[in-house]
């Protein structure tokens, strides 16, 4: 555990931790935050599907202090791009849970991890089972395009929020030709998504595929090394020459867990599941209460820091 993390956990703030106590650490030893990584939906983007004005002002204040800001999201690259531009970030955009890391400034791709073709086809066959086919909307993301097997109300709502025009196609045929960046199955029944997640985790190891939920109704599958924690580590250490102690990450769901655990300061939003809150150093208010602003003020803009 880093010196900075030990320092903040001794402060009188609402920390959630499994560890009972930590040794005293002088605040002068704390490592400065140089990189702020933000999830989008449920973190800086709420029901309006826009970055809230107060959040934008706080992020601008962070950038004025010389702290760089990056986005790590489960969204498609093209769906997340407007938020990246809205924040005037100069860093690569981490999309698809970190499977695609691309810099919009010069279109340089630092990393693109795809789901192995054979495993992707197996997942599509699983989703095609009789008891699941009529209950799940299935998406395949290839070359930053959204392919769906049929237009369902769930898929329509998803495409509208993402501002993406879906392509109806035979997914097995499309995936047989090109490996997907991500597969997603969605359903308005969280219990069914949990059932799918549990079932597939018994069939596949973490070395084969990475499974997560970005919201309670979204099951997502990517390359085993494609998660936000690995993406943030790559950006911080390989691109920016920083250490984990210099990183603050804020997220609201299970797909944010790895980056919250990696960061020197890991923050969970108030609407996060309990397991995510338990892994964080600090729990912020919810997205509609501008929790990101509270976190930024606590750890970056505070005069004490």
Give a verbal description of the structure.
The protein starts with a helix and ends with a helix. 36% of the residues lie in helices and 19% in strands. The strands form three sheets. A six-stranded mixed β-sheet has the order 8-7-6-9-11-10, covered by helices on one side. It folds into two domains: 185 residues, HAD superfamily/HAD-like (Rossmann fold); 106 residues, Hypothetical Protein, Haloacid Dehalogenase-like Hydrolase, Chain: A, domain 2 (2-Layer Sandwich), CATH 3.30.1240. The chain is α/β, with parallel strands linked by helices and 305 residues long. The chain is globular and about 55 Å long.
CATH class of the largest domain: Alpha Beta
Total DSSP E strands: 14
- Coarse shape: globular
The CATH architecture designation of the largest domain is 3-Layer(aba) Sandwich
Average predicted local confidence, pLDDT: 89
| Gyration radius over CA | 19 Å
Give the biggest sheet: 6 strands, mixed
Q: In what range is the share of β-strand residues? A: 15-25%
What share of the residues lie within helices? 25-40%
Q: What is the CATH homologous superfamily assignment of the largest domain?
A: HAD superfamily/HAD-like
Distance between the termini: 19 Å
CATH topology of the largest domain: Rossmann fold
Walk me through the topology.
Elements: H1 3-8, E1 35-38, H2 53-64, E2 68-71, H3 77-86, E3 93-95, E4 100-103, E5 108-112, H4 117-127, H5 130-133, E6 137-142, E7 145-148, H6 153-162, E8 167-168, H7 171-177, E9 182-186, H8 190-203, E10 210-213, E11 218-222, H9 228-239, E12 247-251, H10 257-262, E13 265-268, H11 274-279, E14 282-283, H12 291-301
Parallel strand pairs: 1-2, 1-12, 7-8, 12-13, 13-14
Antiparallel strand pairs: 3-4, 4-5, 6-7, 6-9, 9-11, 10-11
Helix pairs in contact: 2-12, 4-7
């Amino acid at each position: 555990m880093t010196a900075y993390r030990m320092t903040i956990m001794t402060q009188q703030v609402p920390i959630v931790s499994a560890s009972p106590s930590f040794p005293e650490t002088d605040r002068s030893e704390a490592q400065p935050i140089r990189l702020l990584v933000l999830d989008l939906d449920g973190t800086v983007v709420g029901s309006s599907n826009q970055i809230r004005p107060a959040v934008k002002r706080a992020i601008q204040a962070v950038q004025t202090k010389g702290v760089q800001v990056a986005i790590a999201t489960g969204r498609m690259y093209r769906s997340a791009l407007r938020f990246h531009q809205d924040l005037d970030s100069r860093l690569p955009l981490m999309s698809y849970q970190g499977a695609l890391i691309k810099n919009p400034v010069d279109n340089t791709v630092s990393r693109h991890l795809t789901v192995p073709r054979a495993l992707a086809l197996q997942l599509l066959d699983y989703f095609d089972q009789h008891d699941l086919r009529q209950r799940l909307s299935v998406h395949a993301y290839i070359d930053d395009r959204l392919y769906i097997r049929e237009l369902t109300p769930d898929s329509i709502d998803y495409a509208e929020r993402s501002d993406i025009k879906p392509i109806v196609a035979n997914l097995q045929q499309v995936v047989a030709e090109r490996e997907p960046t991500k597969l997603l199955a969605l359903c308005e029944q969280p219990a069914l998504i949990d059932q799918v997640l549990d079932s597939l985790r018994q069939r596949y190891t973490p070395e084969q595929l990475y499974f997560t939920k970005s919201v309670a109704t979204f099951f997502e599958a990517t390359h085993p090394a494609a998660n936000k924690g690995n993406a943030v580590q790559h950006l911080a250490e390989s691109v920016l020459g920083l250490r984990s102690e210099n990183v603050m990450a804020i997220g609201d769901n299970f797909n944010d867990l790895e980056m919250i655990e990696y960061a020197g300061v890991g923050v969970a939003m108030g609407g996060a599941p309990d397991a995510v809150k338990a892994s964080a150093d600090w729990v912020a208010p919810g997205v509609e209460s501008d929790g990101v602003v509270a976190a930024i003020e606590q750890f970056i803009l505070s005069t004490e820091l």
